[in-house]
């Protein structure tokens, strides 16, 4: 059973010190809106893989390609602006540390910033993730263990103000993928406990600023 360190939105000062070495984890999952050098520090200090999705305050990471270690954008060699060595799972399905992770970054659109989507746009992206997960399941019989998002589903841990409203389409995606966990950020606790929620059999966890979780991997059709 892999143990993960999930982080989002707020830097946990105690983790940006030698104290982080006390954590025994197999994987780091980042749900957005954190300094990339913080994420790089965690990955290097723990010597564990890092999978992330971008938040609405992160830079636009779309359009980048990596071929044999060379990053390009629009066919031109460029410097990758994301965290070094990390796996960007946005709109993808990836297998890391024994877990199958589907990712969908960004927030509801509320201004002209990056990584913001209308409900319709995010629903289109969610359908792509669903198709990718379906193809993987047909190939090897394994389902998705973790759905990693920046925003929560609508009405499931979100807030009523426009920037922090969740996505309705995430409810449908959870219904289709039936992951064991949906891990999200975006909603700051502000000192108020944020209890885990459930969508069917899926445990919905607000990981701001961080959570350590044991997650069953290698889920199959049973």
Automatic annotation (TrEMBL):
Domain Calcineurin-like phosphoesterase: 18-189
GO MF term set: hydrolase activity
InterPro entries documented for this protein: Calcineurin-like_PHP, Metallo-depent_PP-like, UPF0046_metallophosphoest
Protein's UniProt name: Metallophosphoesterase
Species of origin: Lentzea alba
């Amino acid at each position: 059973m892999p143990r993960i360190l999930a982080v989002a939105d707020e830097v946990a000062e105690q983790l940006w010190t030698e104290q982080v070495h006390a954590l025994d984890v197999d994987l780091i999952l980042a749900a957005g809106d954190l300094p990339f050098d913080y994420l790089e520090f965690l990955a290097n200090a723990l010597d564990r893989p890092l999978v992330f999705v971008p938040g609405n305050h992160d830079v636009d990471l779309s359009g980048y390609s990596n071929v044999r270690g060379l990053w390009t954008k629009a066919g031109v060699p460029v410097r990758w602006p994301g965290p070094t060595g990390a796996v960007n799972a946005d709109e993808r399905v990836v297998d890391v540390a024994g877990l199958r992770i589907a990712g969908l970054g960004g927030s509801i659109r509320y201004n002209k910033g990056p990584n913001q989507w209308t409900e319709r746009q995010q629903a289109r992206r969610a359908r792509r993730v669903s198709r990718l997960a379906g193809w993987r399941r047909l190939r090897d019989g394994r389902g998705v263990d973790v759905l990693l998002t920046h925003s929560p589903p609508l009405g499931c841990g979100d807030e009523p103000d426009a920037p922090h409203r969740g996505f309705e389409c995430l409810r449908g995606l959870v219904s289709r993928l039936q992951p064991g966990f949906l891990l999200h950020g975006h909603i700051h606790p502000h000192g108020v406990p944020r209890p885990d929620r459930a969508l069917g059999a899926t445990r919905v966890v607000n990981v701001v600023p961080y959570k350590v979780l044991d997650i069953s991997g290698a889920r199959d059709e049973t």
